[in-house]
Amino acid sequence: MLRPHRSPLVAIGAALVALMTGRAGAAPPEIFTQLALHPTDPSRMVLAYAQGGQGLLFSSDGGESFSLRCGAAVSASFTKSRAPLALTADGEVLLGTFGGLVRGSADGCGFADDAELAGLQVADVAPHPSDPTLTFLATANPVDGARTGLVRRNADGSFTALGASDGPSPEHAAIAMNRLAVATLPDGRLRFVATALAEDASGEPRALVRYSDDEGATWQERDVDAAGARLLLLGVDPTDPERFAIALSRDGTSDDILISRDAGQSFELALQLFELGGAAVAPDGTLWVGDAGGDAEYSQPGGLYRFDDFGAAPRKLATYPVRCLAHRALDGRLFGCERSTFGRIDPESGEFVATAGFTSVAAFVACGDEELAFTCKPQLCDNWCGVLHYANAPLCDAYAEEKPLCGPAARGYGQAYASAGTPPASSATVPTSARASAGASNMAPDAEPAACQIGAARRAPGSAALLVSLLPLLALGLRRRPTRAAAAALHSCASSATPRALSATA
Hints:
By secondary structure, this protein is mostly beta strands.
């Protein structure tokens, strides 16, 4: 993570927070990164988030509410970046990692590392274009002599290895695929399209777009000039598998969206984004691309773009940061997420209607006698349920810790009070029964934080009042120099538990 220079105002604020809490401050706020939709059950979906130890959120009501399984209770190999995520027709969650495949259920239970694919990075997961019972995986970076390539997950949950990618050849010493898509050719065969990084015999890297029409037995490959960028496949046109969409993702500068109409032989620049946030493809060939915007979301607020087909010019539908996108073929619905909110998106206008977010998560997933509140406590009390994070999320009522401040204690700390050292109502100790519960909150209406006013610790109301008085000045300084750390803190303060509808225009 980048650690830019902090302005003096930020340093003053951090010092005062540390003075009153005895802690150096909270970690960066969590952000949504990936969304998986069930292919046949519209009530089921899974959201992945990064930072704060990361984790997964599960919905059984179509995204109106979510329950949590923290990263510590998913897998030790759960990575801190985009993790390939999929839901299968039989209700299994597939999570790709650098060390293999993690499998669990759509209700958030029974997670374990898969032994069969151990030692292979599961780089991406792609659905069959017409058979929801079949799913395909692209593997990379083998260890102990394992072969990489395509793997099919069958309807019964078993795996079948298809064509291999690695192996000595005059052209390449190794190939690591990173994104995969599958489309149907006019004759009914499947076309597998992937972006990959190859290493030739001399050790030089090459960025490739490749496709196979025989389940990976042979591949057609095209070099792409991706110097200084990560080459990422966004999708293949379901109506014309000769048309591909790719992205050149860069650190510190804009990302390029390119379209090919000749199976990767040539590409044309179609769009430039500040930061690629997600993409989704509909069966009719409509392509949506999201711009995540900047961390501060001031000068670079992000946006949603629509290509009516892979040959059309993009149209900007709306201005907001897009962190994930997914289209559901069942009913034509489009879903997406901003930094900390999830909701429905109108496919035509781009209007975003938030239905859930971090602050509205009310429970851990229910998995029999599994003590998720206990397992997640170190992770959540250092991050999500702590100061400057989402302590007002109802599930944080499972904790009542003061070292570090966690749950209602952290929530109460976020409320300024003015006189006689009277503690805020929400700082009262949560009963033991509430601490042990992973269910809905008993939080009183007056326990809501007061706009992230870094409030009075019981021991030092004067210091708290001083910091509250400095907040407008701190905000002004942060707006002039929106560092990543400052922007994260401001965004966390601005987060609200109340869903909202966003205008389709800037």
